[in-house]
Amino acid sequence: MRLRPGDDFVITDGQGNEAEAILGPQGSYSAEKWSTPEREAAIELHLFAALTKGEKFDWLVEKAVELGVRRITPVMTRHCVVKKASDNRLDRWQKIALSAMLQCGGCILPEISAPVELAAIPAPQHVCATVLYEYDAESKIHNLDQCRNTRECWLFTGPEGGFSPEEISMLKERGWHSLWLGPRIFRAETAPIIAISTILAGTWGRAET
Q1: In whole angstroms, what is the distance from residue 147 CA to residue 199 CA?
Q2: How far apart are CA 206 and CA 144, in angstroms?
Q3: 188 φ, ψ to 5°?
Q4: Which residues, listed in sequence order, are joined to residue 31 by a DSSP beta bridge?
Q5: Is 116 helix (H, G, I), strand (E, B) or coil?
Q6: What is the helix (H) or strand (E) element at residue 22, kind and residue range?
Q7: What angle do CA 83, 87, 88 make, to 5 degrees?
């Protein structure tokens, strides 16, 4: 809104490319040479996150996108306080994702899927699939390094009340591996940020789009 005709600014196609543009009259603009900046993560991380109440999920979407998550799927689990998400919330998450991408100089617009039931979560095929669980986990946080050797990674995080043992058993039967973050108890919106940071740190700027 502060730009005037003749001013330059950056545009992106949301698919990994950006260009210098020049503002013209009545909101028009022109751009010539497109480039692919090295600011995206090398790993395509898909976050499956149980719905949380209030603005906690909004915050999680924003921070996950800033860190480089490529896709977010809200999930309704047994202990979710929120039992249903309206279309307005999905629209809000998509706008938050767009704003977060632009704020951090990203060029790949993450996909925010409509909420699904846990039973609809697919079985992983040729991807590193990890579910955060505070009890009887198969590995610890340092084992997340193995995800850096994959092209795609799935991460599943629970709600305020955590996962039930039956839910974890179902996910394990489908090929998911449980992971323990340590003895501290983290909030539902904090735990995924720790895991995402561990997986993606050091991979920014090496993406293949």
Answers
A1: 7
A2: 18
A3: -60, -30
A4: 21
A5: strand
A6: strand 18-23
A7: 105
Q: How far apart are CA 32 and CA 9, in angstroms?
A: 12
Is residue 156 within 8 A of residue 105, CB to CB? The reply is: no
Nearest Cα to Cα of residue 48 among 84, 68, 75: 75
Q: How far apart are CA 171 and CA 134, in angstroms?
A: 15
- Say if CB 185 and CB 138 are below 8 A apart: no
Rounded to 5 degrees, φ, ψ at 140 are: -110, 175
Tens digits of pLDDT across the chain (209 residues): 677 777 777 878 888 887 888 888 877 777 878 888 888 888 999 999 999 987 999 999 999 999 999 999 999 999 998 878 888 999 999 999 999 999 988 888 999 999 999 999 999 988 989 999 988 777 777 667 667 777 899 999 999 999 999 999 999 999 999 998 888 889 999 999 999 999 998 787 755 54
Question: Which helix (H) or strand (E) segment is 170 a member of?
Answer: helix 165-173
Q: What are the chain's domains?
A: 1-36 (no CATH), 44-200 (3.40.1280.10)
Q: How far apart are CA 174 and CA 184, in angstroms?
A: 28
At 146, the amino acid letter reads Q
Q: Are strands 128-132 and 152-157 parallel, antiparallel or unpaired?
A: parallel
| DSSP per-residue letters across 84-127 | ---HHHHHHHHHHHHHHHHHTT--BPPEEPPPEEGGGPPPPSSS
Are 39 and 106 in contact, with CB atoms under 8 Å apart? Answer: yes
By residue count, the chain amounts to 209
